[in-house]
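Task: complex structure prediction.
Instruction: return structure tokens for all chains below.
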Amino acid sequence: MCPEHGVRTEAVPFARWDADFTRDFEALAAWLATRTDKTTITRMLRIHWRTVGRIIARVCADELDPDRLDGLVEIGIDRSLSSRMRRCRREISVQRPACRWAC
Ligand SMILES: [Zn+2]
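Output:
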């Protein structure tokens, strides 16, 4: 720490502004959020529950196309419980004039 200026913060290309984590770490957390639940992410990455939400918000604001829902006609959400896997499976389908996808 500089005795004259104290602690100084500088932007770096590998981290978002005001983030405590690198872009790669945040990308991993956001990707995991599309595959598993928040509790699993907190245990795997050893971060707080609320931190997962903040990371997801930053990644979405930074990387998602704001026009991605233009022309959206319908959103259908189907939740079903698989008795074999005992896991909740979500299926989301979005219908656009020329596009339909599920995840
Ligand atoms: Zn200084």
